[in-house]
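cron nightly-structures :: item 1 of 1
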Amino acid sequence: QVTLVESGGGLVQTGGSLRLSCVASEGTFSRSGMGWFRQASEKEREPVAAISVSGDSTYYLGSVKDRFSISRDNAKNTVYLQMNSLKPEDTAVYYCASRRPGMFTATPAAGLYDYWGQGTQVTVSS
């Protein structure tokens, strides 16, 4: 069982930046593709970014592609989401997700992730 703990959310003004972190409990982190998802109030969850185990393959939601950056540090069992030029429409609960060990690729498909964090709130004020 993998436990994921997100941090770094908060309240920021339009145009500001935040960096989310997600620490995994297991040493198998380096064998798992990782992703970030978000869910705004009264909206469906959507994939924001994903990264392969090596970091050489990534996915981004179109609306964040030039503003957000996903990265990982396998030595620290941590995946990051750097969010710049934040907009009010980025307001949501952000969730970290992990594929099971051996599933190396980056994918936006939520159903392919086996473990989820509890979420961290990001609020962007206008």
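cron nightly-structures :: done
The CA atoms of residues 50 and 57 lie 8 Å apart.
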